[in-house]
Every structure is written in C-alpha cells, then in structure tokens.
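Progress against Task 2.4 (sequence-to-structure conversion) is shown through the following example record, which the project officer requested during the mid-term review.
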Amino acid sequence: MSGISPNDYIRAAGGRRSHAPGRLVSHTGPNLSGPIVAYSGLDFSDPYLLSLMRDGRGSAVGLAINERLALRNSTFFRATSLIAGSMGMLPIHLMRRRPDGTTEKAKDHPLFNVLHRKANSYQTASQFKSYMQLAALFDGNAFALKVKSRGAVRELIPLPRRAVKPKLSDDFKLTFEYERPKGGRVILQQDDVFHFRSPLSLDGLCGVSLVDVCVDTLGIAAKAQSAVGRLLTKGSMARGALETEQTLGEEAISNLKESLRENYAGAEAQDDWMILEEGLKAKLFASSARDSQLRELMQAEAEEIARFSGVPRPLLMFDETSWGSGIEQLGLFFVTYCLMMWFVIWEEAIWMCLLDPREQDTMYAKINEGALLRGSLKDQAEFFAKALGAGGSFGWMKPNEVRGNFDLNPEVGGDDLPRPGTTAAQIAKEDMTDAA
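Structure tokens generated for the chain above:
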C-alpha cells in the first residue's frame, strides 16, 4: 500500500469524516467519486473499503463480485445483454403534437437525429442506448454530457461510469460532481447532464444497481461453478468398478484394461454387456447426493437471477416447454413486465433532460416497441387486413400506411383504392361523404 494515503481509500469508498476517530459515516456504497472533507484515523473493517480493496462487492460466501465476474454467469449475461440489446435496437422517435391534436415525427429538430441515428461522433444511437442501459443495470445510473449548439442538443457523450455523483443542495438545486479521469473535479449544472437511472432508488437521486442487489446470488453461483470445476479436475469421473475376491496379477490387469479399450470403448459400445472372467463383478457408481444438490443449487441460483432481472425463464434458455406456439406470449410478457418500465424511464428522462420548458409543452419521446411484438407474416397479414376493413371490420388504416410498416414506398393513388370487403354501395356512400 505504499504511495497510497488513507484519504485515497476514503475518497474511493465515498465516506465523510466522522467526529468519532476511525469511522466513516454516510456511506452510499462503493463510489469512486465520493466526497472527502477530512479524516482522522482509518477503519479497515469498513465494508465499503474492503469491497474496494477486493476489487468487487463482498458476497455472502466471501467472494468479491465485480462486473467481469458477474458476466461469466451465463444467466446474468443473458438477462443483461437481452435487456440492453433490446433497448438498443428499439427506435426512439421525437414526436411533436400539432395544435389540431394530431402528431408527427419532429424530424426537423436536431435532437431527432441524436436519438434516432447518431448520438455522438463515435456512437450510433443504438450503441449509445445499449451502453447507457447496461450502465444503468450495473451501476443503477448512467450519465451523458449534453453538447449544445444554438440552444439544442447536438450530441450526447457518455460520462465514465462511477465518476459522476448527483448532489441536491439545501435549496433543492440539483448539480453533478464529476471526477475527471486524469484528476480534478468539476461541478456540472443540471442543464449540462442527461441522467438516466434504474427504476428503484433509495434516496430519490441514485438508482439501485442490479449487481448490488443480486451479489449474494452471483457469489453462490460462482462458488457452485468453482465446485464443478474442482470436480472435473480433481474428482473421480469413473462410471463404476470391477470387483473380485481373487487376487489379479499384473498381466491379468493389463489384459483386462486392453480388452476394455478394444472392445468396450467409444459410443458404439453403448449398452453392450461385458463378458467378465476371474470372478469379476461390475458395480456402477451412483451419483452422490452432493452432486445432485450441486445441480439443484445452480438451477436455483439461475432462477433467482431471473427474478432479479425480470426476464422470463424461457428467454434465459433454461425452459424448453414454452417455445413454439407460446413464443408470441413470451415476447408480450417480456415487453410488458420487464421492458415497459424502462420505456417509461427513457421517455421521461428525454422529456425532462433534453427538452427545454417551451418544447416540453408540445414535444415528447416515443419508443416503438412494435419491433419486438411483430408476429409471424400470417399474423401480420390478418392484422393489416382487418386494419384495412376486411371481414366487415371498421378499417382504421390506409393502404399506404400499411406499406409504410413494411418499409415500402407509397403508391400514387393507393389510399384511394377500395378497402377489402367493401361493397359498391359502401364505396358510393363514402364518395358522397367525401364530396360533402
């Protein structure tokens, strides 16, 4: 620890001075940009200091869990990558509400391209959204610097993780303390930062980290995985034993091994019966209760991670019975009970942080979740046929609007074509209505 002062650890642990010697107070979790005023005495039993020194969050099994170790858990990796990837692929449109009540995409606004195409000079919109979503899952918060020109946001540049801390003054003014990677701290005003956080918060400012809440589950799963590794490297993998009351010589043992290799090895020998000599008897090894409990433990921890993340079990690849005809319902469940809350958080954060008060009256962000809810081509055909009025239903779409959903160019006069299932009398009536 030479060259590192106690205050370096205090700053990283996010503590403030206590009047009692050797104690830290007002912990907010491992925070690399936590404030420091002064300190007298160092308490090495502090849990957050120990967490920092172990390079991870302490778990119930004594194993320090950091993000890289968490991502080695296949269930956690699948859950976080599915959420972050889904949010990245879904388009965000900046919408404008006209005075007559209709809406349109605000393509003429600079923020539209930032959200929909290119967030900054080195990230596309999908890359930016995936990164911000993953940071919110891992840390509970994600921050981006707003680059403005002529009063409008032209770029959103992600700030380093765990380098920004929101602060609320006594007069309820929000600022952000940013610790630069090369040293030094800067106070950023609320209007300079885009803050996106997880839905749960213990103080109303910072979100709760998914890694923090499931650290014990990840620790137990990592220990179980380590136990499996020790079993494969040091444990006995033999299927059974050959027993006899006689004493076999070296030549008999050598002949027996050679016979096993030549006649009973490989997949072709599966379910063959062995012909034993010298009074030998075969005895199979049964799997131990310890092995069964290990498998059950790993399965249970995978289910725990599914509960923490909110991703349906089949989408985490350990439930085969729900695939097939139930895939559409799985997608609906995933969007409704896992992603929907993130949709609202994104839309509200964009409205609150990226639009000025005047624009907030008429503009808003909208996530198009239809990309995740599209059914088969047959289902889409039936839906759009009814949308056009087939089967006697009241049509609410025009042909060119349907073509637009499939990225097809509009046809000249396409909206004037009769809808499916309409009669000549209905067409004449509609023409009279239009003429009136």
